[in-house]
Amino acid sequence: MDRDVRTHLELTVTEPAELVLSIAVSAHYEPDHEVFLASLDGAPVEPEHFTDHSGTRFHRLRVGAGSLVVDYHAHIMGMGARTVGLPYDLFAYRLPSRYVESDILTPTATAQFAGIPDGPELLAAVSSWVGTQLAYVPGSSGPTDGAVRTLLGRQGVCRDYAHLCAALLRGRGVAARVAAVYAPGLQPMEFHAVAEAWIGGEWRVVDATALAPRQTLVRIATGRDAADTAFLTVLSGRADLSALEVTAVVDELPRDDVTELVSIG
Fold it and tell me: Best exposed site among 21, 68, 213, 244 by fewest CB in 10 Å?
């Protein structure tokens, strides 16, 4: 598989700021070409790099006021390494989190998916149910909306679908997490979010939006919910996003089947 991903960001920094970007592909890949460039008012800015235990790679920028431009490009041939289920993660990803209120939704998960074993059937059932309960409406949710508010409002975007899927799976006692990804075939093109569930000794993708083939996804960040997987975090100062362009292409788009087990690779 031949995949090419790009991100272009423009930010207006109105007071000195510390920013952390999570737009690089996960450490599970070995791109044959990769570049990260940042400039403030045309002058190069050198980022600091760090990686978390899940392979999420971060670029930290400390900049003064001005016009900040960031470009990232990676070309990936073949598949990345599979992520593993570390003992602590398999515990932590069964607990409620900021946007995945599985404790509140456990009765819903128990009643709705009663009698379905924890396996491929459960993933297909959760994905199909969430897909029929929600309408994909850009701009319909706020940055602090979690799974409960999403279910009550019956609409959302990809991160809302991922949060609700993860909450229902955790409500059934299945370890579930959220991944930010590049998604070839996604229309309109943007960063994408999906849920992953630990089934049969592997992390399997659950994407109730069905907007892009799961086989082509490229992992960026992994965590409990959107709090761990945001593409931009302003730690201090003030910076406003003025332009965002995301591109993700693959040499061939496969057909996806919700009943099949798929892992991000």
Answer: 244
Neighbouring-strand partners of residue 3: 76, 250
3-state helix, strand, coil split of the chain in percent (to 5) is 20, 40, 40
Are 198 and 101 found together in one domain?
yes
> Same structural domain for residues 150 and 60?
no
What is the rounded CA–CA span in Å between residue 220 and residue 56?
6
Residue whose tokens read 């955790």: 170
CATH number at residue 63: 2.60.40.2250
Tell me the residue range of the domain where 240 lies.
2-80+231-249
Instruction: Identify how many contiguous H helices and E strands the chain contains and give both numbers.
Output: 6, 13
Is residue 256, in this structure, part of any structural domain at all?
no
CA-closest candidate to residue 245, choices 74, 36, 71: 71
Q: Give the DSSP letter string of 126-145.
A: HHHHHHHH-EE-TT-S-TT-
Q: How many CB atoms lie within 10 A of CB 96?
A: 19
